[in-house]
Hints:
By secondary structure, the chain is of the alpha/beta class. The protein has 12 helices and 10 strands. It is about 45% helix and about 15% strand. Strands 1-2-10-7-8-9 form a 6-stranded mixed sheet, with helices on both faces. A 4-stranded parallel sheet has the order 5-4-3-6, with helices on both faces.
Amino acid sequence: MLELEHIQQAHERIKDEVRRTPCLRTRFFRSPAVQDASLSLKLECLQVSGSFKARGASNKVLTLPAPARERGLVTASGGNHGLGVAYAGRRIGAPVHVYLPASTPASKVEKLERWGARVVFEGEVWDDANAAAQRAAERDGMTYVHPFADADVMAGQGTVGLEILKQSPSVDTVLVSIGGGGLISGIATALKCSKPGVKVIGVEPTGAPTLKRSVEAGRVVELDAITTDANTLAPRRTEQLNLDIVRERVDDIVLVEDDHMRDAARWLWFEMGLAVELSAGAAVAALRTGAYRPSPGENLCAIVCGAGTDGIG
């Protein structure tokens, strides 16, 4: 099981590789869903490479011996994890291959290529691309970097939780969007092991309730189909490692519609000038729709996980 000491070690390892992103209060803005509570936003959309993924990828690659770095890195991504690995690989001089599903936005493909990654398209969903990436790693001797079911990656993502506790020490509840479960596994571990009374609420799209279905079933469940446009929150299955952590350390998982995430992304643009992707609106959408209802006086923090243009226009 991932533990606090792993996240603290990751913090020391990557502190000069990634940004300490702001955690801003929203008291100056209209936020009717939380008018009796206090809301802060942890702005991982301002992280290097455009999302929190740079944290986990940097921690992973910095643990690799020189021969593994020279052989290169391979991964599969809906965009953000690939960008994180491309950034981390460039920092250490390692070649990077990123397998993408056909649904990956063209803007992220362009950014990956500008970071120097070799891009390969495979299949319609992340799971297809991931299978191809794992085959390539085995065939070519490259290090496969899993986007969520890797202890080093999760430890890097968990540094978000350490920062929240320093920036907002009175926090009561943290809302985290869920894809495969790497971010929430790391954050929940950092928070629960440091301040056990903090609640951790996961947020998934109704079109990809990957962790919620698995938690309800008590086992890893593979979804029959993905029907959300939030491609960075859309694996058909999690892994046992993530499910075990989520079951132990996450208080609840709520669902939001794509349209509600779009509305939240537009709110973030209108009120704060933040250009974010659809998935980055998930935690805010859970509050604006009442999927999570805070108590009066509750101190909330919502993770704004990635940059994009879904809220603009």
